[in-house]
Amino acid sequence: MTSSTRLCLVAGTTGTANIDGLSAAGATPAAMRETPSADAELLCYGEPVRMGEMPVSPSGCPTPALFTRVARELVGFDVAVIDGGLAEPTAAPTVSVGAKPGGDIRERDPVPSGPGAFAAARQLGRQLPSTELLVAETIPGGTTTALGVLRALGEQGAVSSSLRENPIAHKREVVREGLAASGLEPGDAAGDPRRAVRRMGDPVLATAAGTALGAIETDTAVTLAGGSQLLAVAALLRHAGVEMPLDLATTPFVRADSSADLEELAADLDVSVSATDPAFPPEGHPALAAYVAGEAKGGVGFGGALELADRAGIPMARVRERAVSLYEEVQDA
Amino acid sequence: MTSSTRLCLVAGTTGTANIDGLSAAGATPAAMRETPSADAELLCYGEPVRMGEMPVSPSGCPTPALFTRVARELVGFDVAVIDGGLAEPTAAPTVSVGAKPGGDIRERDPVPSGPGAFAAARQLGRQLPSTELLVAETIPGGTTTALGVLRALGEQGAVSSSLRENPIAHKREVVREGLAASGLEPGDAAGDPRRAVRRMGDPVLATAAGTALGAIETDTAVTLAGGSQLLAVAALLRHAGVEMPLDLATTPFVRADSSADLEELAADLDVSVSATDPAFPPEGHPALAAYVAGEAKGGVGFGGALELADRAGIPMARVRERAVSLYEEVQDA
Q: Rounded to an integer, what distance in angstroms lies between the CA atom of residue B300 and that of residue B287?
């Protein structure tokens, strides 16, 4: 077989996103339900298809799917979207592993489909023929569920945010309520990743961890393409017994988020972090400047896609130019 | 938007394939259930993934998906697989339009999901951003259901076969039984494509016709990439009121099938037929020679993919060489 690189985007939802003030992954709370479906369409088709609009934050910052799509156009890597619990039908082709939309982690059993999705995704990860796999996510509210999983596993550290000001105290309170509802103390799910993700996580984390585990078990090179949520995936892999080195490809915007301290958590989990800088100008096009100002920061494999573009010798100026032109095309459509 | 060509493979099943002796789209009747799922995997990944093996006929002739995959590798066109009623979960990403596996057309109401799938696929066809769409199919037993639809619509003409000897008398008998079970005389569903496909067709025909209709309505260039089954789609489009010219891209093996007389039916339906010749040597590799001997003949967009390769200036010798090497790789895997 010839070598091939594939980005697996795991797209899904959690009821945790309905809690006010946790996420900027949608213009309104109602729009957040559609964000993962629309992100998948943007990645696969270059524009929203069944979904009416490109996802934006309440302030208008465009979804990072825009940049991942641009990198894909320029580099030509393969893509597979895995349904990690979508709430709205997407026109993007998706692989099913049985994941269903997740509930609010303040419920006792928010992700009953998690263990089954983990197992089916693991089998899929074992079977996918690519020689290199990037695992990415799109799920509004996902940093809160990532924090929930980290606490259930007994890992310390904070998580990043799609909001400019990280509502980390609010996330911690939600996680405390979730642990109480699940009858768990921090660390009670150490060594039991299925329990951690079912009680305190979301279906995307379950699916992403399963996919990565299966790929690792069959000697596929795996890159965790994301920030805090993919570090939670790394934690799930460590608690599943994975001991080999793990690589995280993120953005400089996530890495610079002092409220999250990604590097410290990564060091605890023995994960190497890289971040390719797209050199967005702070005074440039608003779609780029919003990232420099700390909005959105990452997601949808943005950091991993930049790394693939850089490795393919694509100048970052081309990524920036095409991102602006695609943004304008989609806005005008 | 930049121009783009996409092959939409509609993949599904019909209980009609369980009737002995109608189809060669699988090594055994049980394997035929898996053929569309495996064809989709071959197209998307270059090898079977969740499915254990590459589909072959009882005599070992490989699925035409092999050649469509090769053309895709060489040309780089986009692909979307639409779930037209799959019976086995596939690792290929698929778009859902609500189609369910079809029943045996000798039942009264074999395709209750047909009208809904037609409507959802039509909407999808309207929304897909490609500037050119090739519509293709994979469904064992599909030429018999194609004949059923043609008769229900009142169209004359025969259909081709994946078997070297077309069991056309058997197909006609099955269609007679089906019409009787549905309380229909030939032509009773003229002008009513939804009824024809629900009572005498299969979910792939419903989905393919809907996709093509939606694309045509939004001025996307549509090519029907196939043989008799895509001519049945053309008939459904004509009975839905489509009057514009329609193009069918098939293989020389389908066109040469005297038992089907594709050209006459195409002329009746005002469909232009083209066939790109891959020049398979009759004494060459068995995987190619089987086609020259009249097995399989087409399907999975084989003819359309050859046309795209030819238009892109890919020499047919490269298609043949890569097809043989991919065949050997998949057999050895």
A: 16
User: How far apart, in whole angstroms, are the C-alpha atoms of residue B117 and residue B130?
Assistant: 21
**Dihedral angle, C-alpha A42, A48, A49, A50, nearest 10 °:** 110
* Three-class SS state of A162: coil
CB contact (8 A) between residue A129 and residue B46: yes
Report the half-sphere exposure of B138 (CA within 13 A, side-chain side).
32
**Which of A44, A49, A128 has the CB atom closest to B127's CB atom?**
A49
Beta strands in chain B (DSSP E): 5-11, 78-83, 94-96, 132-138, 221-225, 246-250, 271-275
* Nearest-angstrom CA–CA distance, A25 and B8: 31
Can you give the pTM of this predicted structure? Answer: 0.96
ipTM of the predicted structure?
0.94
B126 three-state secondary structure: helix
Contacts across the A-B interface (CB distance below 8 Å): 61
Q: Which two tokens stand for residue A15?
A: 């009821």
Joined tokens for residue B296: 């399989």
Residue of A nearest to B329 (CA): A1
> Strand A94-96 relative to strand A78-83: parallel, antiparallel, unpaired?
parallel
Say if the Cβ atoms of B93 and A94 lie within 8 Å. yes
Q: At what angle do helices A203-217 and A142-153 cross, to 10 degrees?
A: 60
Residue A157 pLDDT: 83
Q: Are A197 and A114 within 8 A, CB to CB?
A: yes
Cβ distance A91 to B94 less than 8 Å, yes or no, reads no
Token pair 């991102």 in the structure block, residue: A323
Structure tokens at A109: 């059993």
Q: Which of A70, A96, A97 is most worth mutating to test chain B (most B CB atoms within 10 A of its CB)? A: A96
Alpha helices, H only, B105-167: 114-127, 142-153
**Per-residue pLDDT reduced to its tens digit, A127-139:** 999 999 999 999 9
Residues of B in contact with A69 (CB under 8 A): none
Banded model confidence at residue B1, pLDDT cuts 50, 70, 90: very low
Contacts of residue A89 in chain B, CB cutoff 8 Å? 96
Chain A residues with CB under 8 Å of B89 CB are 96
Interface residues from chain A to B (CB-CB < 8 Å): 1, 44-47, 49-50, 76, 80-81, 89-96, 123-124, 127-129, 329, 333
